[in-house]
Amino acid sequence: xxxxxxxxxxxxxxxxxAVFNTRTSRVAVNDDGLPxxxxxxxxPQQHQLVEQGRYVARLGDCVACHTSEPSKPMxxxxxxxxxxxxxxxxxxxxxxxxxxxxxxxxxxxxxxxLGVAADGHNLYPAMPYPSYxxxxxxxxxxxxxxxxxxxxxxxxxxxxxDMGFPFNQRWGLALWNAVFLEDEPFxxxxxxxxxxxxxxxxVQGLGHCGACHTPRGxxxxxxxxxxxxxxxxxxxxxxTVEGWRALSLRNLWTPEETAEMLKTGRNKHxxxxxxxxxxxxxxxxxxxxxDLMAIGIFLKSLPPGEDDLPMQLxxxxxxxxPPYRTGGMAKPGEVPGxxxxxxxxxxxLQFCADCHRSNGDGVPNAFPSLAGNNxxxxxxxxxxxxxxxxxxxxPVTQSHARPLTMPSFAQLSDQEIAEILNFTRRAWGRADxxxxxASEVSRARKxxxxxxxxxxxxxxxxxxxxxxxxxxxxxxxxxxxxxxTARMLPSNVGNKLNCASxxxxxxxxxxxSPYVGVSAFFPSYASRAGRVITLEERINGCFQRSMHGKxxxxxxxxxxxxxxxxxxxxxxxxxxDKVEGRGxxxxxxxxxxxxxxxxxxxxxxxxLCHGANGEGVRNAKGEMVYPPLWGGESFNIGAGMARTYTAxxxxxxxxxxxxxxxxxxxxxxxxxxxxVDVAEYFxxxxxxxxxxxxKDWPNDKKxxxxxx
Length: 708
Known about the structure:
mainly alpha, heme
């Protein structure tokens, strides 16, 4: 009978572990989201205790799970998904009818340390009471005072769990507690100093870091709750939970770097992802500098175990960082040799390189490097697959109020995702990494319920499909010339732009002036030229205007490759067809631009990639990563993007990247008015002249927003 009970308890705690690590992510509110004491009848000493308790609540990250509606903080109701149904967080406001207003301090202490509610029922360890058991009596008393006097009572009944049998039976948890629970408060280690012990207390107790980062045992219990004792080497040594690989935190960076990461969600090595986004957003960014340093000092003191890896964060390409060792085949700063010859390489080039770059270097202060990325070096690909299917968002912090995002790539097939990840791991991960199969992606997709972003009925052409064609080598050259125009054709490009600066992802993005079907419409009449022009002439128009350079010889291999690439993109398009997603769309041209507002929008949403003064963004080697938007190295006044409403239409649908969730660039988000405002601002800044401008518009009326 005991064995049956233990089996039941094992299932329940496995369920609880799964629940804890899949709590619903929510967008943070503008303030810190944690109620402030409004009680007026308290003495100064009581106010001080309440404020201490508020900080304890922050350390324990209570608000992240116990607030579903920002207008009702701590009233519970947040759905916690499990494979067997839902749990809902409880009301911990001091409402006597539906909250914890009737709890005595002793009852509160029992629920926090033992997981036993006032009425005697056992809590699922989705509430991490095994960690909270380490709280000091003083912190417990302060937290109780805060919840009773610093939080406004909210009458909101707790929602019953929606769990099927046998997972709705809580009695087995009492047996689990008897076997696994350690309910003694934290005891300082005598030969360690006060700062180290403070860090240990925060990590082991209120921070409950081990709930995700410590390996689990046969009963799905944390194998150890401390860094001491015979099992201490397992503490924070890494675990896979619900599709995320929570890697080892042992011997993590310098204490200063750890403190910066917990404060801002990023440091020179990269940014947080997965469940750590919630932790930083709701908890650690509000900790004192002393506490953050204590955590960093404690983590740094833990010796790495066998095969331990640090957290899932990448090294960045900033100058001053020692050269990284990738473990893969790519040399630091170099483009992998098979990026143009494999399906995975071309898939990466199309869907990943715009942010992570073709050499894996990433973009300083924006997108993490893949070279040296410890997630790629892990044998467990769970985090990689998870991010590809569900996307990623940096935390909202006081220092970074606008989070960068990576959209979901669930629109790609399981095989495509596997190919891209295998290429990436070969290039920048570990040489002995096992091959990811499409079936692994399929299982994760089903488990995560990952669905495609179909906000536009546009099928993005796949560059990888070029490898099936007889002229594959020529087509790949055409794609390369579009992506890396300035470097490959220095005699024809006079600024720092490439074709793909406007024709995003090598001309495959809807409303990003895609090449799909375009060659079917040439030869055609061009009002600017006042005559019928060929596709080659249209291409050379871009070289002269957008790229401020010289025409490409019509008979050159490069021109033939570009035309072949466009012809491959034509598909079955006929001249009379309307191609979904072609061009850049339109905006309301009756809108009056507000240049001052455009300047503000540029600073907030454009400067990260294009520079505070429109100068573009360079990497540590001085190479241009994202193009300048004005000045001598930008497009000239003859370019289409020099026109306010053309530029506004492009910006409306495609910029900024990585601020939204749309596939494939996280692009868009501005209103028509905002797009017009910012377009007016950057198009009318100083830029190169276009000498042949007097020959334009010979027969037709010049558009009202043309620069000449």
